[in-house]
Design brief:
The protein is an alpha/beta fold. It is built from ten helices and five strands, in the order E-H-E-H-H-E-H-H-E-H-H-E-H-H-H. It has two domains: 215 residues, P-loop containing nucleotide triphosphate hydrolases (Rossmann fold, 3-Layer(aba) Sandwich); 33 residues, no CATH class.
Amino acid sequence: MRSTYGKSLPDMNLSDLSGKLIVIEGTDGAGRTTQIDLLKPWLEELGHAVLDTGMARSSLAGDGIRRAKEGNNLGPVTQSLFYATDFVDRLENEIAPALRAGFIVLTDRYIYSLMARAIVRGMDPVWIRSIFAIALKPDAVFYLRVGIDQLVPRVIFSRGFDYWESGMDLYPGRDMYDSFCNYQHALLTEFDHFSQEFSFETIDASAQPKVVFAQLKASILQLLDSDSRETYLSKLRADSSEVSVHGIAGNSAPALREATRAELNLVLHPVAVHSPNGNGHGVPPRE
């Protein structure tokens, strides 16, 4: 049965969260978004329903976080609690329902990024861990690790240095380049500690994206091979055949037969989640 890191949300039944929770972790510029954009259609082609999510995408707190960060004056405690609110809202209203429906949930960063950011900013590690004790333990965490030497040119030649990802709130008045290197080095130190503690699968993200993608596919296929999906499908097929052959007394037989076939068809041919904004998850864009 699925478990958490200490506590559960009220009324959450952990026994029926049959989907797979796959986390892609790493610092800014490690290539997480690129890999999720490759993994999602690949998994859907294999017949899996997929939800992708990430930080600051909840309908409750996502917009508020973005507005607060525009002023560059968000304190570490407020920032930690803001992101925790965003996470819990997505956990309760997106992640858990998707897992309950048998989806594969791909999440761009998870509680490890949130804890690393908070600890680097001086938050009590015991306190911040207690906040995220309600998090579901993932089925797999892939840590895309890239060193500072490779990270700097990636950021410079993509979107450039960002105030928060450069840790300028920690090192006010410093050169943004130096601040970025110091901040990312501190984050890498925390991630490396977490990698041991939480059994991340570390992948060298300095390689070409197609090489990283191949490694992720191999590991995810191994994870899915151990799934009970085929057992479940076999049971549905058996139930459908039994109803078709033997029938059931009374007028309930046709309805039950159609319901069983509909359930089997839904599992065999899942439909991806669509939303009015076209991003597949009905929540704000990625951070």
